[in-house]
Amino acid sequence: MLEIPKIALPGGETVPILGQGTWGMGEDARRAGQEADALRHGLDLGINLIDTAEMYADGRAEQITGEAIKGRREEVFLVSKVLPGNASHQGTVAACERSLKHLGTDRIDLYLLHWRGPHPLAETLAGFEELQQAGKIRHWGVSNFDMEDCRELDSLAPGKAATNQVLFNLMRRGIEYDLLPWSRERGMPVMAYSPIEQGRLLKYPALGKVAERYGATPAQVALSWLLRQPGVIAIPKAARAAHIEENLAALDIRLDRDDLALLDRTFPPPASARPLEML
Ligand code: NAP
């Protein structure tokens, strides 16, 4: 079995640089079994970081995740998220308890604020702290935090956040200018969501051209481009076994200078600061 490289969270615990997303799962009850099977297939292959959220299909993606990890909780590094509207101190605690029920477990490994919302950040952090002390979450972090949010977070809880989950792929390279170097300096991995832009990246001829050189697919090139970068975890969502296997095999591709130059011409790196994009 291909060993997935690991990356350290602040504090030292390591997690795989490739995980499994779940957005879109749980939307249709007829597909639930297949979706849980797909997550289990990923676990069988060693892709043991799973990202979900209370938002996804109103908790049903968490339930499918719970189904997938039944009997194998110890293998999994489980990530879930609180909705901003719920993220008051007590609201965060209550949301986490609902998520734990959906997931059928007594702890979430990494609990994220999904994006900035109406509640002061200090309140959400108080909720995270309470949950951590109770052993209901092991680490906490944020998502969709731009530079200004990151600085505020760092002033409230320096070095405490385990990750910032953000939109990052070849079409969305803004974070390379500031947020990614800033996170690297602090030893905080960035978790790249929508790593193949929900499939929209796959139509670009440049990806096809690079893929041909390796007998690979455009999706694998898009993932390889992310996975080669220090300080980055990628969490593609795949409900099909073939996609999961393909995504894992992306770790074997070593893009060279010519490949990277071609990709840079099609998807230029940022030359100045850009507001963080969200999906
Ligand atoms: P994505 O992973 O970029 O794309 C998912 C789509 O790509 C699915 O339709 C999947 O098809 C397809 N796919 C997967 N592997 C493929 C392959 N090898 N070849 C061709 N198609 C492939 O998009 P995403 O789901 O938006 O992002 C990934 C995860 O990030 C989410 O599931 C979620 O956990 C997280 N996320 C977080 C936020 C946030 O605000 N924090 C926002 C968006 C996403 P099948 O399912 O049919 O296999």
Brief digest:
The chain has 279 residues and is α/β, with parallel strands linked by helices. It has ten helices and nine strands. The structure holds NADP nicotinamide-adenine-dinucleotide phosphate.
Question: How does this structure look, described?
Answer:
The chain has a single domain (16-266), classed as Alpha-Beta Barrel (TIM Barrel). The protein is 38% helix and 14% strand. The chain is built from ten helices and nine strands. α1 crosses α2, α2 (60-69) crosses α3 and α3 (89-103) packs across α4. Bound molecules: NADP nicotinamide-adenine-dinucleotide phosphate.
Model regions low in confidence, pLDDT < 50 over at least 5 residues: none
Oligomer: single chain
From the coordinates shown, what is the CATH architecture?
A: Alpha-Beta Barrel
Would you tell me which CATH topology applies? TIM Barrel
First-residue to last-residue Cα separation: 33 Å
What is the residue-averaged pLDDT? 97
Shape: globular
Classification by helices and strands: alpha/beta
* Total number of beta strands: 9
Number of domains: 1
Biggest sheet, spatial arrangement of strands: 3-4-5-6-7-8-9
Number of helices, where a helix is a run of at least 4 consecutive DSSP H or I residues: 10
Ligand types: NADP nicotinamide-adenine-dinucleotide phosphate
Element order: H for helix, E for strand: EEHEHEHEHEHEHEHHEHH
- CATH class category name: Alpha Beta
**Largest sheet descriptor:** 7 strands, parallel
The gyration radius over C-alpha positions equals 18 Å
Hey, roughly how much beta strand do the residues contain? 5-15%
CATH superfamily: NADP-dependent oxidoreductase domain
Estimate percent helicity.
25-40%
